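Team,

Forwarding the record for the chain on the shared tracking sheet. I've put the sequence and predicted structure together so nobody has to dig through attachments.
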Amino acid sequence: MIEDLWYKNTVIYSLDLETFMDANGDGVGDFEGLTRRLEYLQALGISTIWLSPFQPTPNRDNGYDISDFYGVDPRHGSSGDFVEFMQHANKRGIEVIMDLVVNHSSDQHRWFQASRTDKHSQYRDWYVWSKKRPANWKTGMVFPGVQKSTWTYDKEAREYYFHRFYEFQPDLNMHNPAVRTEIRRIMGYWLELGVAGFGWMPYHSLLRRPIRAGKKPS
Protein backbone atom coordinates (compact mmCIF):
# COMPACT_ATOMS: atom_id res chain seq x y z
CA MET A 1 0.00 0.00 0.00
CA ILE A 2 1.28 3.47 -0.95
CA GLU A 3 0.74 5.83 1.98
CA ASP A 4 2.15 8.95 0.30
CA LEU A 5 -0.55 10.00 -2.18
CA TRP A 6 1.36 12.99 -3.55
CA TYR A 7 0.83 11.81 -7.12
CA LYS A 8 -2.93 12.33 -6.77
CA ASN A 9 -2.39 16.03 -6.25
CA THR A 10 -0.01 16.72 -9.10
CA VAL A 11 -0.44 17.05 -12.85
CA ILE A 12 1.67 14.28 -14.41
CA TYR A 13 2.71 14.48 -18.05
CA SER A 14 3.98 11.14 -19.37
CA LEU A 15 6.19 11.41 -22.42
CA ASP A 16 8.40 9.34 -24.68
CA LEU A 17 11.59 11.34 -25.10
CA GLU A 18 12.16 9.85 -28.56
CA THR A 19 9.05 11.46 -30.02
CA PHE A 20 8.83 14.67 -27.99
CA MET A 21 11.33 17.33 -29.14
CA ASP A 22 14.36 16.97 -31.39
CA ALA A 23 16.97 19.68 -30.78
CA ASN A 24 19.76 18.55 -33.10
CA GLY A 25 17.69 17.63 -36.16
CA ASP A 26 18.53 13.94 -36.29
CA GLY A 27 14.89 12.89 -36.08
CA VAL A 28 15.05 11.64 -32.49
CA GLY A 29 13.91 13.55 -29.42
CA ASP A 30 16.54 14.40 -26.84
CA PHE A 31 17.08 15.98 -23.43
CA GLU A 32 18.22 19.24 -24.96
CA GLY A 33 14.93 19.48 -26.80
CA LEU A 34 12.94 18.59 -23.69
CA THR A 35 14.82 21.22 -21.69
CA ARG A 36 13.87 23.85 -24.26
CA ARG A 37 10.20 22.96 -23.86
CA LEU A 38 10.05 23.12 -20.05
CA GLU A 39 8.63 26.64 -20.10
CA TYR A 40 5.84 25.43 -22.40
CA LEU A 41 5.07 22.44 -20.15
CA GLN A 42 5.06 24.66 -17.08
CA ALA A 43 2.60 27.01 -18.81
CA LEU A 44 0.29 24.02 -19.33
CA GLY A 45 0.27 23.46 -15.58
CA ILE A 46 2.48 20.38 -15.65
CA SER A 47 4.10 19.79 -12.26
CA THR A 48 5.57 16.30 -12.82
CA ILE A 49 7.15 14.75 -15.91
CA TRP A 50 7.09 10.97 -16.25
CA LEU A 51 9.86 9.75 -18.56
CA SER A 52 9.67 6.53 -20.53
CA PRO A 53 12.97 4.56 -20.68
CA PHE A 54 15.87 6.62 -22.05
CA GLN A 55 18.86 4.48 -21.09
CA PRO A 56 21.17 2.82 -23.66
CA THR A 57 19.27 0.17 -25.60
CA PRO A 58 19.27 -1.85 -28.83
CA ASN A 59 15.74 -0.39 -29.04
CA ARG A 60 13.90 -3.53 -30.06
CA ASP A 61 11.07 -2.78 -27.62
CA ASN A 62 10.79 1.01 -27.56
CA GLY A 63 13.68 1.31 -25.11
CA TYR A 64 12.38 -1.22 -22.58
CA ASP A 65 15.25 -3.56 -23.50
CA ILE A 66 17.93 -1.74 -21.51
CA SER A 67 21.61 -2.54 -22.01
CA ASP A 68 22.97 -0.11 -19.39
CA PHE A 69 20.91 1.01 -16.40
CA TYR A 70 23.32 3.81 -15.52
CA GLY A 71 23.45 5.86 -18.68
CA VAL A 72 21.62 7.82 -21.36
CA ASP A 73 21.18 6.45 -24.86
CA PRO A 74 23.34 8.51 -27.24
CA ARG A 75 20.27 9.20 -29.39
CA HIS A 76 18.89 11.27 -26.51
CA GLY A 77 22.09 13.05 -25.55
CA SER A 78 24.50 12.48 -22.68
CA SER A 79 24.39 12.09 -18.91
CA GLY A 80 25.44 15.75 -18.78
CA ASP A 81 22.38 16.69 -20.84
CA PHE A 82 20.22 14.77 -18.37
CA VAL A 83 21.75 16.60 -15.40
CA GLU A 84 21.20 19.96 -17.10
CA PHE A 85 17.58 19.01 -17.81
CA MET A 86 17.08 18.09 -14.15
CA GLN A 87 18.52 21.40 -12.99
CA HIS A 88 16.18 23.40 -15.22
CA ALA A 89 13.18 21.27 -14.23
CA ASN A 90 13.93 21.75 -10.54
CA LYS A 91 14.26 25.50 -10.96
CA ARG A 92 10.75 25.54 -12.39
CA GLY A 93 9.39 23.37 -9.60
CA ILE A 94 8.79 20.44 -11.94
CA GLU A 95 9.47 17.01 -10.50
CA VAL A 96 10.67 14.11 -12.64
CA ILE A 97 9.85 10.44 -12.30
CA MET A 98 11.12 7.71 -14.60
CA ASP A 99 10.11 4.20 -15.54
CA LEU A 100 11.92 1.66 -13.38
CA VAL A 101 12.54 -1.22 -15.78
CA VAL A 102 14.45 -3.77 -13.73
CA ASN A 103 12.47 -6.99 -14.07
CA HIS A 104 14.56 -7.76 -17.14
CA SER A 105 17.48 -6.48 -19.20
CA SER A 106 18.41 -6.55 -22.85
CA ASP A 107 20.12 -9.74 -23.99
CA GLN A 108 22.92 -7.38 -25.07
CA HIS A 109 23.57 -6.27 -21.49
CA ARG A 110 27.03 -7.23 -20.26
CA TRP A 111 25.46 -9.09 -17.33
CA PHE A 112 23.57 -11.45 -19.62
CA GLN A 113 26.52 -11.87 -21.96
CA ALA A 114 28.67 -12.92 -18.99
CA SER A 115 25.88 -15.13 -17.67
CA ARG A 116 25.47 -17.07 -20.90
CA THR A 117 29.15 -17.50 -21.71
CA ASP A 118 30.52 -18.57 -18.32
CA LYS A 119 28.75 -20.87 -15.85
CA HIS A 120 31.19 -19.75 -13.17
CA SER A 121 30.55 -16.05 -13.74
CA GLN A 122 29.15 -14.05 -10.83
CA TYR A 123 26.35 -13.10 -13.21
CA ARG A 124 25.28 -16.66 -13.99
CA ASP A 125 22.64 -16.60 -11.26
CA TRP A 126 21.53 -13.08 -12.13
CA TYR A 127 19.21 -14.69 -14.67
CA VAL A 128 16.94 -17.74 -14.55
CA TRP A 129 18.37 -20.83 -16.27
CA SER A 130 17.17 -24.40 -16.71
CA LYS A 131 19.08 -27.35 -18.14
CA LYS A 132 15.83 -28.90 -19.35
CA ARG A 133 12.95 -27.17 -21.07
CA PRO A 134 10.36 -26.49 -18.34
CA ALA A 135 6.91 -27.98 -18.75
CA ASN A 136 5.38 -24.49 -18.65
CA TRP A 137 7.62 -23.09 -21.37
CA LYS A 138 4.66 -21.73 -23.33
CA THR A 139 2.63 -20.30 -20.45
CA GLY A 140 2.47 -16.82 -18.95
CA MET A 141 3.32 -14.90 -22.12
CA VAL A 142 2.69 -11.15 -21.95
CA PHE A 143 2.24 -10.92 -25.72
CA PRO A 144 0.51 -14.14 -26.80
CA GLY A 145 0.42 -14.47 -30.56
CA VAL A 146 3.64 -12.46 -30.82
CA GLN A 147 5.79 -14.36 -28.36
CA LYS A 148 6.50 -18.02 -29.01
CA SER A 149 7.40 -18.97 -25.44
CA THR A 150 8.61 -17.74 -22.07
CA TRP A 151 11.66 -20.03 -22.11
CA THR A 152 14.23 -19.94 -24.90
CA TYR A 153 17.20 -22.20 -25.54
CA ASP A 154 20.53 -20.40 -25.67
CA LYS A 155 23.08 -22.22 -27.82
CA GLU A 156 26.07 -20.70 -26.07
CA ALA A 157 24.88 -21.43 -22.53
CA ARG A 158 23.31 -24.73 -23.65
CA GLU A 159 20.44 -24.07 -21.31
CA TYR A 160 17.04 -22.44 -21.37
CA TYR A 161 16.55 -18.96 -19.95
CA PHE A 162 13.32 -17.38 -18.72
CA HIS A 163 11.79 -14.24 -20.21
CA ARG A 164 8.31 -13.03 -19.32
CA PHE A 165 8.41 -10.68 -22.28
CA TYR A 166 10.32 -11.08 -25.55
CA GLU A 167 13.22 -13.51 -25.92
CA PHE A 168 15.64 -10.57 -26.18
CA GLN A 169 14.58 -9.45 -22.68
CA PRO A 170 15.82 -12.13 -20.24
CA ASP A 171 14.33 -11.81 -16.76
CA LEU A 172 16.60 -10.89 -13.89
CA ASN A 173 16.58 -13.35 -10.99
CA MET A 174 14.90 -11.42 -8.18
CA HIS A 175 15.56 -14.29 -5.75
CA ASN A 176 19.26 -13.43 -5.93
CA PRO A 177 20.21 -10.92 -3.17
CA ALA A 178 22.95 -9.51 -5.40
CA VAL A 179 20.35 -8.58 -8.01
CA ARG A 180 18.18 -6.83 -5.44
CA THR A 181 21.24 -4.96 -4.16
CA GLU A 182 22.06 -3.85 -7.69
CA ILE A 183 18.53 -2.57 -8.19
CA ARG A 184 18.88 -0.46 -5.06
CA ARG A 185 22.11 0.94 -6.50
CA ILE A 186 20.33 1.78 -9.75
CA MET A 187 17.58 3.59 -7.87
CA GLY A 188 20.13 5.38 -5.70
CA TYR A 189 22.07 6.53 -8.74
CA TRP A 190 19.08 8.23 -10.35
CA LEU A 191 17.85 9.64 -7.07
CA GLU A 192 21.24 11.29 -6.61
CA LEU A 193 20.82 12.88 -10.04
CA GLY A 194 17.59 14.45 -8.87
CA VAL A 195 14.82 12.05 -9.90
CA ALA A 196 11.87 12.35 -7.49
CA GLY A 197 10.65 8.79 -7.87
CA PHE A 198 9.94 5.85 -10.11
CA GLY A 199 7.05 4.21 -11.90
CA TRP A 200 6.70 0.62 -12.89
CA MET A 201 4.22 -1.66 -14.60
CA PRO A 202 3.74 -4.93 -12.70
CA TYR A 203 2.95 -8.04 -14.73
CA HIS A 204 -0.50 -8.39 -13.24
CA SER A 205 -1.66 -4.83 -13.81
CA LEU A 206 -1.74 -2.16 -16.49
CA LEU A 207 -1.95 0.54 -13.86
CA ARG A 208 1.28 2.46 -13.52
CA ARG A 209 2.00 3.56 -9.96
CA PRO A 210 4.71 6.07 -9.05
CA ILE A 211 7.15 5.46 -6.19
CA ARG A 212 8.43 8.63 -4.63
CA ALA A 213 11.96 9.03 -3.29
CA GLY A 214 12.22 7.58 0.21
CA LYS A 215 9.09 5.46 -0.16
CA LYS A 216 9.02 1.69 -0.54
CA PRO A 217 6.75 0.06 -3.13
CA SER A 218 3.99 -2.21 -1.90
